[in-house]
Amino acid sequence: MRDVHVDQIAETIARLVQDANFKLEQDVTDAISRAKSLEEAPVGQAILLQITENYTIADTERVPMCQDTGVALVFLEIGQDVHLVGGSLTEAVNRGVATGYKEGYLRMSMLNDPINRVNTKDNTPAMIYTDIVPGDQVKVKVDCKGGGSENMSQLKMLPPSAGWEGAKRFIVETVANAGPNACPPLIVGVGIGGNFDKSALLAKKSLLRHVGAPHPDPEWAAREQELIEEINKLGVGPMGLGGTVTALAVHVEFFGCHITALPVAVNIECHSHRHKEAVL
Amino acid sequence: MAKVYITTPLTEEQVRGVKAGDEVYITGAIYTARDAAHKRMIEDLEAGRSLPFDTQGAVIYYVGPTPPKPGQVIGSAGPTTSYRMDKFTPEMLRQGVKGVIGKGYRSDEVKAGFVEHGAVYLVSTGGAGALLARTIEQAEVVAYEDLGAEAVRRLTVKEFPTVCIHDASGGDQYYTGQSQWVKPDAMVKPKKPEAGE
Ligand code: SF4
After folding, report:
1. Please, which residues bridge with residue B139 across strands?
2. CATH code, B3-186
3. Chain B: residue whose CA lies nearest to A61
4. B22 FRET partner, CA 20 to 30 A, in A120, A131, A195, B185?
């Protein structure tokens, strides 16, 4: 057993949410550079140039690259030999988010209640995802996820007869409907299988993969390739103004499912893909 | 595609001079409003109260900026998705608003409204809030301060960069631009505009 104080988790999260909003990780900037080499439309090139200038300013001046500094998604991989001490983990995570958003002059975008809609003024609650894993460390991953792209996400319970073709059509249509609303070029996260909520979780977690890294299973990697080719045929392009790069990457995760089911979830992420991680 | 420079408040002549696909640079005062502020403005109108700014020829920017750091005029200030304002836009156009800035698709009703009222829909680059903030010289809250990031602010901008998507004669740049690049065997084709000439 190794003790980890929850305050350490809070402090880490406070730092990560700021770093995430000020500086893109290299997997994202590399993906944007690849997009620049692939984009054929002059207007698409002009948008990609603005995106690059923007993240450079954000990094050098330590200001948020986007005004929607997001919902704080906090993924905790907790080693089973870790003993968390010092109080409630959930409270510590929210404390970290509140501190980080205040210190970083980030925007408070969270409400107490979806119908009454009163701003909590500290960007809590965070969305917390915990996994128990082997080992005695705690891995903290943070993704500050914007609302514009999240709103364009979709989930559908397809009949098994729809098969891969049906799933592919649903995924491509979801991206086409999202169009400029989701700030393309996009990272498209797909979860197939499991059940209703599992597919959504798979889609969300697929976004955490190194941008553009293929699925380890060659059959699924080929499906990802097929999807990105179909998506980039749409002509949506950077900010929907027309072009050849609509998606930077498509990540698919799958899971076994019931004989009656073919759940497909598409979680859309914009080019401002702000993720950071740390190990405690 | 031309570069057009406009100064607010917009005149009918200025609006007519902007075509879908133009790069449009805005100078002057523009007003911020997003979901919550639009809802309040519509409530104000229904209650017979006046709006927080002069809407004749006004330009509204759909943005909720981040708070300024000490010494900054404003934080990051890029556009939010426009369709959420679709419900309110026809009334704002009836009030004399001549331009709105956001990102993303609009409803058929709103597109028809741009033609009917002689107004334009402009977009700026989503996620480029730090870059766009550099064209904002002044910012002051003029109404609904309790809404925080969603309050109505008067921004003084200098050559704020946008692209015109819908002009006053039914042009649709999302359709035109995407049609140029869509592949013949794409699974979905760009949506044809319903309104327009
Ligand atoms: S979709 Fe992403 S880049 Fe666009 S405004 Fe929202 S957070 Fe920013």
Report:
1. B155
2. 3.20.130.10
3. B130
4. B185
Separation between Cα atoms, residue B160 and residue B20, nearest integer Å? 17
CB contact under 8 A, B177 and A109: no
Ranges of each domain in chain B: 3-186
Q: Are A267 and A189 in contact, with CB atoms under 8 Å apart? A: yes
Indicate which of B69, B85, B135, B181 best probes the interface with A, i.e. most A CBs within 10 Å of its own CB. B181
Using the 3D structure, point to which of A88, A122, A145 is the last residue of a domain: A145
Residues 98-157 of A with CB under 8 A from B: 105-109, 117, 119, 121, 146, 148, 151
In this predicted structure, the answer to whether residue B197 has a pLDDT above a threshold of 80 is: no
Whole-number Å distance, alpha carbon A164 to ligand 1 midpoint, is 30
Do A186 and A228 lie in a common domain? yes
Q: Is the pTM of this model over 0.90?
A: yes
Q: Please check whether residues A126 and A216 belong to one and the same domain.
A: no
A58-115 residue pLDDT tens: 999 999 999 999 999 999 999 999 999 999 999 999 999 999 999 999 999 999 999 9
Question: A51 at the B interface (CB within 8 A)?
Answer: yes
Confirm whether the ipTM is greater than 0.90.
Answer: yes
CA dist A151 and A173 (Å) reads 15
Alpha helices, DSSP H only, in A25-162? 26-38, 42-61, 89-103, 147-150
Residue of A nearest to B184 (CA): A233
Contact (Cβ atoms closer than 8 angstroms) between residue A109 and residue A71 = yes
The answer to whether residue B80 neighbours chain A at the CB level (below 8 Å) is: yes
